[in-house]
Amino acid sequence: MEAVGALQERQPAAPGALASFARFVLCGGGVGIASSLAVAALASWIPWALANALVTAASTLLATELHARFTFGAGGRATWRQHGQSAGSAAAAYVVTCLAMFALQGCVEAPGAALEQAVYLSASALAGVARFAVLRLVVFARTRTAAAADTRSVHAIAAPDGLPADPAALCHAA
Question: What integer pLDDT is reported at residue 143 of this predicted model?
Answer without folding.
Answer: 52
